[in-house]
Amino acid sequence: MISRLLAPKTTVHAHCDLPCGVYDPAQARIEAQSVKACMEKYAASSDHDFQARAVAIKEERSTLVKEHLWVLWTDYFKAPHFEKYPQLNTLFNEATKLAGAGGTKGSNDVAVADQLLTKIDEIAEIFWETKKA
Amino acid sequence: MISRLLAPKTTVHAHCDLPCGVYDPAQARIEAQSVKACMEKYAASSDHDFQARAVAIKEERSTLVKEHLWVLWTDYFKAPHFEKYPQLNTLFNEATKLAGAGGTKGSNDVAVADQLLTKIDEIAEIFWETKKA
Amino acid sequence: MISRLLAPKTTVHAHCDLPCGVYDPAQARIEAQSVKACMEKYAASSDHDFQARAVAIKEERSTLVKEHLWVLWTDYFKAPHFEKYPQLNTLFNEATKLAGAGGTKGSNDVAVADQLLTKIDEIAEIFWETKKA
Amino acid sequence: MISRLLAPKTTVHAHCDLPCGVYDPAQARIEAQSVKACMEKYAASSDHDFQARAVAIKEERSTLVKEHLWVLWTDYFKAPHFEKYPQLNTLFNEATKLAGAGGTKGSNDVAVADQLLTKIDEIAEIFWETKKA
Amino acid sequence: MISRLLAPKTTVHAHCDLPCGVYDPAQARIEAQSVKACMEKYAASSDHDFQARAVAIKEERSTLVKEHLWVLWTDYFKAPHFEKYPQLNTLFNEATKLAGAGGTKGSNDVAVADQLLTKIDEIAEIFWETKKA
Amino acid sequence: MISRLLAPKTTVHAHCDLPCGVYDPAQARIEAQSVKACMEKYAASSDHDFQARAVAIKEERSTLVKEHLWVLWTDYFKAPHFEKYPQLNTLFNEATKLAGAGGTKGSNDVAVADQLLTKIDEIAEIFWETKKA
């Protein structure tokens, strides 16, 4: 959790297209944590209806992960960021794919959620570096 | 920001009605920060269309504040919490009112957003105390 | 307009955060009736896909129950109401919990839906008393 | 339960596409009442931001009127109903148009909201006749 | 696909209640194609969770089909159209029913999706005729 | 409209995260057309409330443009596409920015909508090339 340690303690940031200028990768991470928790609860249950709910809610929360990441990619990051961090585009594309059909939507494997969380942390680390710059 | 200092550094939490067990008052705070930023941008602008967008987006973000707070109130807090913190119900009722028509929806006054942020911080402080318990 | 003539004159109320001043507990009750009906249809079916749809739609309708109740609690009821009806906070908290994970979302038991309906009726009774006051 | 005792026994109905079989024109009427109230509050105000909010919320509530009516038209009413009430299609088409750009969305005239309410009442009357049949 | 052949090649049309005047039956057709694809993937799979996701996503996409069709019926088509094409009301009512509980929501049978697509094509053909008129 | 001429005549494509495999840049283009139409109607009107509605609906439709483009970028395009078309990432980032605060949301200038439409057409041309491959 290097990115969190580097971050200012009091910031909690988000977005809107005014733009309000408030962004925070924590929003994506929170939903990804929820995705992972749904997988864990799915695995721990043998109640079919509960498992169906876990899959459905995981789908919904994965969508929110994608939304929050897309907003950061389009609305927060600017041309100079992409020059300085040439891996940014691929990072975002892979992270959002990891929250989609080939990732946490299509899988109940906690390892996939962990990969997603790791990608979000990589994005967060760059994000907080740019905020300090 | 006492509540943030007291909080574990790495946690970023949310919710769903599985329940996934992931909650974090930061979600409400992020949106409230956005509400405040919309008010500031509204005040700094003289472009009528921009101001209309600021008001509309502030409305939307205020609704999200209410949503996140309602979820905490209903889904995270249990009977023993309400016994230990008898002010909780009123705190949540006032906080959500502060994000409504008589609060940040009906006003462009940054002081109202600050009152909302203060209420959220009071809630957050109790929240993190209960997480440590 | 026979149906309307039979109905109490003050009915059909809702809300918005203008606020428009139009509220009616019927909105929550309608969705709760739908929740109960989904449970009954779930029980009467042996088609797995149909049952999955019933669970998913029940989830969605339970969320709507919560939404309508939260709006009443925050937007309609004011400080004097909470003084006069000290049970209001607990009533709303329990009712919304009954439409959540520990209630109609997590259960297919019609008795749980009935408990939810009873709570909504208790809220409605207080609501209509305050409207007459 | 005084309020419920006064109400017709068969009321509080809604829908979902399970289908749950719960329908009630009151849902559309409630939103239309809200539309009308927004117009009245718009007219009574001279605060530009408040008026903008009234227009925006009226837009949203008008959309909900359309939604509820469309659901009744498609999901509740069946071929025999359309045979018995040949005016039904036109009634629904006109009612939904009255909640659109040429109706309550494009106008702040309370008379337009009243026309919409009248159409909804005509639909409700037929609806309740079919429920008794 | 007669309707597509008759249509201007470059038009891609939609709607909003401004109204923007941009409509295109392609929006409903795209979602109906997705509904059909979900059914095909459902049939080709034996993974229970995947099938549950297919059913849930099919439900969502079917709802979008209904939405797009309702908008065309209410917002694009006017009284003269209904006079010239007396089958229009029934066509829309049947098409939206085909995307509901008795249609693609309640069934995994690709033949039902094909019936829906055929209805949409019939609507599209009339739509493009009226655009040329 | 080279991309449309190159495209198979009968395809109308969309998406979902099953994935259903149905994609079509037309969805983004339709909403962008609507955005442009809102600007034109805004310019042609002197009714303040109508203009406010135009701005609000333009905001909503711009969001839909972003959504449809993000889905294509994450869900349709794969690693080999990004290798073959190295401009893809920038193209999508610029297109979605053009539908945001610095683009069609923040501006009423039809030229901005035209730039957005041009970007979407560039994306569509690549999309259809990859479909033929």
User: Proportion of β residues of chain A?
Assistant: under 5%
Secondary-structure element pattern of chain A, one letter each: HHHHHH
Roughly how many Å is the radius of gyration of chain A? 15 Å
Number of helices of chain A: 6
Query: Count the strands of chain A?
Result: 0
Tell me, briefly, the overall form of chain A: elongated
What characteristics describe this protein?
homohexamer, 133 residues, mainly alpha, 6 helices
Describe the overall structure:
Six copies of one chain form a homohexamer. By secondary structure, the first copy, chain A, is an all-alpha fold. Chain A contains six helices and no strands. The longest helix of chain A has 29 residues, at 48-76. Chain A is elongated. Chain C binds chain D through residues 1-4, 6-8, 11-18, 20-22, 24-27, 29-31, 33-34, 37-38, 41, 53-54, 57, 60-61, 121, 124-125, 127-129, and chain D through 1-4, 6-8, 11-18, 20-22, 24, 26-27, 29-31, 33-34, 37-38, 41, 53-54, 57, 60-61, 121, 124-125, 127-129.
Mind sketching the topology for me?
The structure is a homohexamer of 133-residue chains.
Chain A: H1 2-6, H2 26-44, H3 48-76, H4 79-84, H5 88-98, H6 110-132
